TrEMBL record:
The keyword Lipid metabolism applies. One of its GO terms (molecular function) is sphingosine N-acyltransferase activity. It is found in: Membrane. It comes from the Eukaryota. GO terms for cellular component: membrane. It catalyses: sphinganine + octadecanoyl-CoA = N-(octadecanoyl)-sphinganine + CoA + H(+). This is Ceramide synthase 1. The chain crosses the membrane at residues 56-78, 99-117, 173-192, 231-254, 274-296.
Amino acid sequence: MAAAGSAGPEPMPSYAQLVQRGWGSALAAARGCADCGWGLARRGLAEHAHLAPPELLLLALGALGWTVLRSAATSRLFRPLAKRCRLQPRDAAKMPESAWKFLFYLGAWSYSTYLLFGTDYPFFHDPPSVFYDWKTGMAVPRDIAVAYLLQGSFYGHSIYATLYLDAWRKDSVVMLVHHVVTLVLIVSSYAFRYHKVGILVLFLHDISDVQLEFTKLNVYFKSRGGAHHRLHALAADLGCLSFCLSWFWFRLYWFPLKVLYATSYCSLRSVPDIPFYFFFNVLLLLLTLMNLYWFLVSGRPQCLPTWPSSDACPVPVPVPEEPSRCRPFSHGSSERATLGKGQRTCGRSRQRSGGAGLSFHLCLPPTVHRGFCCQSADGPGAELKDAEYDTQRPRAPSPAKLRSR
């Protein structure tokens, strides 16, 4: 089959061709497997799996190293940076997680991009070539082995981080399943020497994580120090758009038509008795379904940073007409309006004060200051969040005008 690849890359199929050819190949493989079962699986593991104990130990040490490095970076870099930039309390609590993930995924995706486009590997432009010269126990190139070690150890760390370090969200269970499936795919594809297709899978997935964490960071930084920063707001909007486009293009278009087509159809043409055909294709199909789940179920076009694993979207909340409960203060005033228990107000959150109260930088009637969240001070959203659609900060009227009212 290597000679077949010399005629040029095979054209990328359509979705209909993927379903027709992939399903047909799977049915043919199932009918031709007379001794499928645990016995065949045990023989396949003994004959084709090549994973030495030192490699597993190195993977475990790498996961531990990522955990220690994250703890050090959070305490010595990310939290001091959030404090110095005067982020809102709830944003300061979430910023270290996004900063950590952004830096890792940016580095990981840059390295996989180098492997696919800066070397002689033809995997991206000719995905079926990943199986042309496959052999049991074949040597793994050192540059690909480094990528596997970094990614495998990081996803081992990510399972622990999702359970004990990251903020728990409504889709954290799905995210945990995603990390487990990804780790199993990384380890097993290395052991069975499917590392070429593995690099392609990592490249097609990491780019969306880079854009997601970049967008979330700009959402956290756009309202800080009592001010609204237009540059971060614009970057967050552009990040939302690019994240949406990349998620569909990389994960829902290229991934099934390049990776699933190669593993479900082309693999059997190159290696008719390829081991663990169903195991790998089921896991890759599960990965595709999770990508589709986040796209259709968790995705909200008006608030893309919530998708996946982000937090509540800052959408406008109708503000009740209760100006009498809202003491007016100008932007330049040194005074602070402190909420008592059970009071309601509308305003831009500045910082927490001591005790159960909250301090606010601005507190105006909704006719002047619309679009801000208005919640009870002792409710679940006690630190009120700026939810403006506009990038322009509202101006407070002068004290004389307020007194005239």
